[in-house]
Amino acid sequence: MKSKITKWMLAFFMLFFIFQTGTIANADDDDEGVRYERHEHEDEDREYEEDDDEGYYEENTTNYGDGTMYESTPVQSTFWNLWTREISSTTSNTELPFQEAKEVSIELNNTSESFFMIPQNGQLLVPGEKVAKFLGAKSRYYQQSKILELSKGTEELIVRAGTNAAYENMVKTPMPTQSFYYERSVYLPISVISNALGYRVNWDAAKLAIILQEI
Protein backbone atom coordinates (compact mmCIF):
# COMPACT_ATOMS: atom_id res chain seq x y z
CA MET A 1 0.00 0.00 0.00
CA LYS A 2 2.78 2.37 0.92
CA SER A 3 4.53 1.67 -2.38
CA LYS A 4 1.40 2.59 -4.31
CA ILE A 5 1.07 5.85 -2.39
CA THR A 6 4.72 6.60 -3.01
CA LYS A 7 4.31 5.96 -6.74
CA TRP A 8 1.24 8.21 -6.88
CA MET A 9 3.08 10.97 -5.03
CA LEU A 10 6.08 10.69 -7.37
CA ALA A 11 3.78 10.81 -10.39
CA PHE A 12 2.00 13.86 -8.96
CA PHE A 13 5.26 15.75 -8.34
CA MET A 14 6.55 14.89 -11.83
CA LEU A 15 3.37 16.18 -13.47
CA PHE A 16 3.51 19.30 -11.32
CA PHE A 17 7.14 19.91 -12.28
CA ILE A 18 6.43 19.42 -16.01
CA PHE A 19 3.43 21.75 -15.84
CA GLN A 20 5.41 24.48 -14.08
CA THR A 21 8.29 24.19 -16.55
CA GLY A 22 5.93 24.52 -19.51
CA THR A 23 4.29 27.58 -17.94
CA ILE A 24 7.64 29.28 -17.42
CA ALA A 25 8.68 28.51 -21.00
CA ASN A 26 5.43 29.95 -22.32
CA ALA A 27 5.86 33.06 -20.20
CA ASP A 28 9.36 33.56 -21.61
CA ASP A 29 8.03 33.16 -25.15
CA ASP A 30 5.32 35.74 -24.48
CA ASP A 31 7.85 38.24 -23.14
CA GLU A 32 10.05 37.73 -26.17
CA GLY A 33 7.09 38.32 -28.47
CA VAL A 34 6.24 41.54 -26.66
CA ARG A 35 9.82 42.77 -27.06
CA TYR A 36 9.85 42.04 -30.78
CA GLU A 37 6.49 43.70 -31.24
CA ARG A 38 7.66 46.78 -29.37
CA HIS A 39 10.79 47.08 -31.49
CA GLU A 40 8.75 46.64 -34.64
CA HIS A 41 6.52 49.53 -33.60
CA GLU A 42 9.58 51.61 -32.74
CA ASP A 43 10.96 50.98 -36.22
CA GLU A 44 7.64 51.98 -37.77
CA ASP A 45 7.64 55.21 -35.75
CA ARG A 46 11.03 56.11 -37.23
CA GLU A 47 9.66 56.06 -40.78
CA TYR A 48 8.70 59.49 -42.09
CA GLU A 49 5.98 58.00 -44.29
CA GLU A 50 3.96 56.90 -41.25
CA ASP A 51 0.17 57.14 -41.53
CA ASP A 52 -0.28 59.49 -38.57
CA ASP A 53 1.39 62.38 -40.42
CA GLU A 54 -1.93 63.47 -41.83
CA GLY A 55 -3.34 66.15 -39.53
CA TYR A 56 -0.43 65.68 -37.11
CA TYR A 57 -0.23 69.35 -36.28
CA GLU A 58 -3.81 70.55 -35.87
CA GLU A 59 -4.60 74.12 -34.89
CA ASN A 60 -4.38 74.77 -31.15
CA THR A 61 -3.28 71.20 -30.35
CA THR A 62 -0.03 69.32 -29.99
CA ASN A 63 0.48 65.57 -30.32
CA TYR A 64 3.16 64.32 -27.93
CA GLY A 65 3.38 60.88 -29.48
CA ASP A 66 1.24 58.95 -26.99
CA GLY A 67 -1.96 59.40 -28.97
CA THR A 68 -3.20 62.21 -26.71
CA MET A 69 -3.79 65.69 -28.04
CA TYR A 70 -2.90 68.53 -25.68
CA GLU A 71 -3.96 72.13 -26.01
CA SER A 72 -1.22 74.57 -26.93
CA THR A 73 -1.00 78.32 -27.26
CA PRO A 74 -1.72 79.30 -30.88
CA VAL A 75 0.52 81.70 -32.73
CA GLN A 76 -1.75 84.61 -33.59
CA SER A 77 0.26 85.92 -36.50
CA THR A 78 2.81 84.46 -38.89
CA PHE A 79 4.90 85.82 -41.72
CA TRP A 80 4.67 84.40 -45.23
CA ASN A 81 8.44 84.73 -45.67
CA LEU A 82 9.56 83.28 -42.31
CA TRP A 83 9.31 79.69 -41.15
CA THR A 84 8.84 80.09 -37.40
CA ARG A 85 8.53 76.31 -36.93
CA GLU A 86 5.59 76.84 -34.61
CA ILE A 87 1.92 75.86 -34.85
CA SER A 88 -0.02 78.72 -36.43
CA SER A 89 -3.67 79.74 -36.37
CA THR A 90 -3.32 82.27 -39.18
CA THR A 91 -5.63 81.64 -42.15
CA SER A 92 -5.61 85.04 -43.84
CA ASN A 93 -3.86 86.11 -47.04
CA THR A 94 -4.04 89.84 -46.23
CA GLU A 95 -0.30 90.18 -45.53
CA LEU A 96 0.80 88.53 -48.77
CA PRO A 97 2.45 90.64 -51.48
CA PHE A 98 -0.19 89.37 -53.95
CA GLN A 99 -3.51 87.58 -53.62
CA GLU A 100 -3.93 85.54 -56.80
CA ALA A 101 -2.12 82.47 -58.10
CA LYS A 102 0.34 83.50 -60.81
CA GLU A 103 3.86 83.34 -62.21
CA VAL A 104 6.32 85.26 -60.02
CA SER A 105 10.07 85.68 -60.35
CA ILE A 106 12.50 84.44 -57.72
CA GLU A 107 15.91 86.09 -57.75
CA LEU A 108 19.12 84.69 -56.27
CA ASN A 109 22.59 86.11 -56.83
CA ASN A 110 21.44 88.17 -59.85
CA THR A 111 19.87 85.07 -61.43
CA SER A 112 16.09 84.88 -61.71
CA GLU A 113 13.45 82.38 -62.77
CA SER A 114 9.65 82.46 -62.82
CA PHE A 115 7.56 79.99 -60.80
CA PHE A 116 3.84 79.49 -60.44
CA MET A 117 2.85 80.46 -56.86
CA ILE A 118 -0.39 79.79 -55.03
CA PRO A 119 -1.56 81.86 -52.00
CA GLN A 120 -3.02 79.66 -49.23
CA ASN A 121 -3.67 80.35 -45.54
CA GLY A 122 -1.34 83.32 -45.40
CA GLN A 123 1.46 81.53 -47.22
CA LEU A 124 2.86 81.45 -50.75
CA LEU A 125 3.20 77.89 -51.98
CA VAL A 126 5.71 76.99 -54.69
CA PRO A 127 6.57 73.78 -56.61
CA GLY A 128 9.18 72.07 -54.45
CA GLU A 129 11.20 70.21 -57.06
CA LYS A 130 11.50 73.20 -59.40
CA VAL A 131 12.50 75.64 -56.68
CA ALA A 132 14.96 73.10 -55.27
CA LYS A 133 16.62 72.82 -58.67
CA PHE A 134 16.87 76.62 -58.88
CA LEU A 135 18.56 76.62 -55.47
CA GLY A 136 21.04 73.96 -56.51
CA ALA A 137 19.46 71.35 -54.23
CA LYS A 138 18.77 67.71 -54.95
CA SER A 139 15.20 66.40 -54.99
CA ARG A 140 13.51 63.02 -55.14
CA TYR A 141 9.77 62.37 -55.35
CA TYR A 142 8.06 59.13 -54.34
CA GLN A 143 4.84 58.81 -56.33
CA GLN A 144 3.12 56.15 -54.23
CA SER A 145 3.57 57.86 -50.87
CA LYS A 146 3.60 61.43 -52.28
CA ILE A 147 6.79 62.22 -50.39
CA LEU A 148 9.30 64.81 -51.57
CA GLU A 149 12.88 64.70 -50.32
CA LEU A 150 15.07 67.78 -50.70
CA SER A 151 18.72 68.11 -49.72
CA LYS A 152 21.56 70.58 -50.09
CA GLY A 153 24.85 70.01 -48.34
CA THR A 154 24.06 68.94 -44.80
CA GLU A 155 20.51 70.29 -44.91
CA GLU A 156 17.59 67.95 -45.60
CA LEU A 157 13.85 68.54 -45.85
CA ILE A 158 11.19 65.87 -46.28
CA VAL A 159 7.57 66.80 -47.04
CA ARG A 160 4.53 64.67 -47.67
CA ALA A 161 1.70 66.08 -49.80
CA GLY A 162 -1.54 66.52 -47.88
CA THR A 163 0.06 67.12 -44.47
CA ASN A 164 1.41 70.06 -42.51
CA ALA A 165 4.27 68.08 -40.99
CA ALA A 166 7.79 68.30 -42.39
CA TYR A 167 11.02 66.56 -41.40
CA GLU A 168 13.86 69.05 -41.12
CA ASN A 169 17.08 67.08 -40.73
CA MET A 170 14.89 64.17 -39.55
CA VAL A 171 13.20 66.27 -36.86
CA LYS A 172 9.41 66.41 -37.23
CA THR A 173 8.42 70.07 -37.49
CA PRO A 174 5.09 71.83 -38.18
CA MET A 175 4.62 73.85 -41.37
CA PRO A 176 2.30 76.90 -41.39
CA THR A 177 -0.06 75.21 -43.86
CA GLN A 178 -0.48 71.87 -45.61
CA SER A 179 1.45 71.00 -48.72
CA PHE A 180 -0.42 69.53 -51.69
CA TYR A 181 0.19 67.83 -55.01
CA TYR A 182 -0.66 69.93 -58.07
CA GLU A 183 0.45 69.80 -61.70
CA ARG A 184 2.96 67.02 -61.01
CA SER A 185 4.62 68.92 -58.18
CA VAL A 186 4.44 69.02 -54.39
CA TYR A 187 3.61 72.62 -53.44
CA LEU A 188 4.89 73.86 -50.09
CA PRO A 189 5.42 77.29 -48.50
CA ILE A 190 8.32 79.21 -49.96
CA SER A 191 9.35 80.12 -46.41
CA VAL A 192 9.74 76.43 -45.55
CA ILE A 193 11.80 75.32 -48.53
CA SER A 194 13.94 78.47 -48.55
CA ASN A 195 14.64 78.71 -44.81
CA ALA A 196 15.27 74.95 -44.55
CA LEU A 197 17.90 75.08 -47.29
CA GLY A 198 19.59 78.18 -45.90
CA TYR A 199 17.97 81.24 -47.51
CA ARG A 200 16.18 84.35 -46.31
CA VAL A 201 13.06 85.43 -48.24
CA ASN A 202 12.19 89.05 -49.08
CA TRP A 203 9.75 90.81 -51.40
CA ASP A 204 10.96 93.52 -53.79
CA ALA A 205 7.94 95.67 -54.57
CA ALA A 206 9.76 97.57 -57.31
CA LYS A 207 10.72 94.43 -59.20
CA LEU A 208 7.55 92.51 -58.18
CA ALA A 209 9.88 89.65 -57.38
CA ILE A 210 10.96 87.50 -54.45
CA ILE A 211 14.60 87.98 -53.47
CA LEU A 212 16.54 85.19 -51.75
CA GLN A 213 19.66 85.76 -49.69
CA GLU A 214 21.90 83.17 -48.11
CA ILE A 215 21.54 83.04 -44.33
What is the makeup of the main sheet? Answer: 7 strands, mixed
What is the count of helical runs?
Answer: 3
The SSE string, one letter per element, is: HEEEEEHEEEEEEEHEE
**CATH fold-type name:** Copper Amine Oxidase, Chain A, domain 1
| The CATH homologous superfamily | Copper amine oxidase-like, N-terminal domain
- Structural class category: alpha+beta
Q: How helix-rich are the residues, as a percent range?
A: 25-40%
Assigned CATH class: Alpha Beta
Approximate strand percentage = 25-35%
Q: What CATH architecture would you give?
A: 2-Layer Sandwich
Global geometry: elongated
Instruction: Please compute the radius of gyration using only Cα atoms.
Output: 28 Å
Mean pLDDT: 77
Q: pLDDT below 50 for ≥5 consecutive residues: which ranges?
A: 21-46, 58-76
Largest sheet, order of strands side by side?
Answer: 11-12-5-4-3-14-13
Number of strands: 14
The protein's oligomeric status is single chain
- Give the distance, in angstroms, between the N- and C-terminal Cα atoms: 97 Å
The total domain count is 1
